[in-house]
Amino acid sequence: MAQGTARRHRVVIVGAGFGGLFAAKALRRADVDITLINGTAYHLFQPLLYQVATGILSEGEIAPPIREILKRQRNVDVKLGWVTDVDVAAKKVLVSAPGIDYTVEYDTLVVGAGASQSYFGNDGFADHAPGMKSIDDALELRARIFGAFELADLHEDPAERERWMTFVVVGAGPTGVEMAGQIAELAHRNLPGQYKHIDPRRARVILIDAVDAVLKTFGDRLSTRALRQLHLLGVEVELETKVVGVDATGIDVDTPRGRERISSMTKMWAAGVAAPPLAGKLAAAAGVKTDRAGRILVEPDCTLPGHPEIFAVGDMMALDNLPGVAQVAIQSGRHAADQIKRRLAGRETGQKFTYFDKGSMATISRFHAVASIGKVHVSGFVGWLMWLAVHLLYLVGFKNRVTAVLHWFVSFLGRGRAERVATFQQAYARAAVREYGDPFARGRVSTGPDAPK
Ligand SMILES: Cc1cc2nc3c(=O)[nH]c(=O)nc-3n(C[C@H](O)[C@H](O)[C@H](O)COP(=O)(O)OP(=O)(O)OC[C@H]3O[C@@H](n4cnc5c(N)ncnc54)[C@H](O)[C@@H]3O)c2cc1C
Predict the structure, then answer these.
(1) Residue 391, C-beta contacts closer than 8 angstroms, at least 6 positions apart
(2) Residues in contact with ligand 1 (CB, 6 Å cut-off)
(3) Please, what are the domains in the chain?
(4) What is the pLDDT of residues 381-424, one digit of tens each?
(5) How much is the pTM?
């Protein structure tokens, strides 16, 4: 109980991603009342979104309900809604949910609102090249990928057929490499023999990046191995190639050979992240600076300068050039929780957040991954086993782990894809929402990657 008051210390956590969720969990025994506000009712395991988009996993396996995860934690109240602004002086957040706006007061605020997709100023590209940030994105891509093979099977004109069977992935970081690898496996391993008029093995998968290497952050050795594996899968890799236009039927690129157009009905964007809209709002409200990507420049202890009562964690904080990865979010969320507990116990606070790098990994195809852990660089089957172990460890919920393993058996040992359902609404909803707007959100500002566009 806070001294002299009848109530407990109120901690509001914005975002139930890796940062927010792990902060909430780390406070489970603390003498505080937590309100955890998230734009969706589920926690999203983003690293496996590409497996939803390519029919390996179901969306439920990577997005368990937040209230189910925290059902045994008595000091937390889970609320649905997008935080649209923060009133720093009055210490309250303004929240918007379908058909209802509300406010929540705090004594300490922890904000972990993640990151948004960046199209480098060309937001119109999103209509034709969905990003990979949300369940909506993954289901839309799944509908477009499987729908493309269906439509290719209907067309007799060879040019039209080729357009439907050409898949372009922009961005050769881990997400782009994983997407390209999985579409190639789909075409070469899972789908052959299922169509009367097309051979899925003739599909073209093109991976594009403006830089000169795939998986550049993994170092030269692993990057070269990943490139070799992509070539073995039949992926065409176009490096030092910049996207200058995207429309319904293709993509325009500046290559070392000059400007070219690739005819393709199915494009996806896995390049570039930006801070979420809330980062700018919070920075302005608190009078603090952001970096070039819009992330909040925090103090070494993850608090906002001049505001020891506000923490920014995970992807939306800028500190020591830390990367936007799950471990930074988990560890910074836990650090914020630790600072809150120390403060309430009257102990010294302000300790610097120190990141322990557990390494990074990316799968290229079944049984083939690259992993970089400190000085250890592994690729191939051993890398894939490490990838499997880490993802099983961090997938939230026992039930999800069991069903994910079953689905991996189906896809990696067998030749099936368990999740191939694709609806027209999934494929077209983005355009409809843009055209007509969200009926609940009309006249209001909504933020966040899943927020109504
Ligand atoms: C496709 C993809 C693949 C990835 N692969 C890897 C990988 O292999 N390894 C790795 O380490 N990292 C990977 N990452 C990065 C990793 O997922 C992020 O670094 C991590 O999720 C960041 O955690 P976070 O808590 O900061 O944000 P997030 O996990 O993004 O969570 C933010 C939460 O805040 C909510 N939110 C946002 N705005 C608001 C608002 N205004 N109001 C209320 N709620 C809001 C969102 O709904 C979301 O639940 C990947 C990311 C993506 C997109």
Answers:
(1) 47, 48, 404
(2) 14-20, 37-40, 44, 46-47, 49, 82-83, 112-114, 132-133, 174-175, 276, 278, 314-315, 324-327, 329, 447-448, 450
(3) 9-115+275-344 (3.50.50.60), 123-273+359-429 (3.50.50.100)
(4) 999 999 888 888 888 777 888 888 888 888 888 888 888 998 98
(5) 0.93
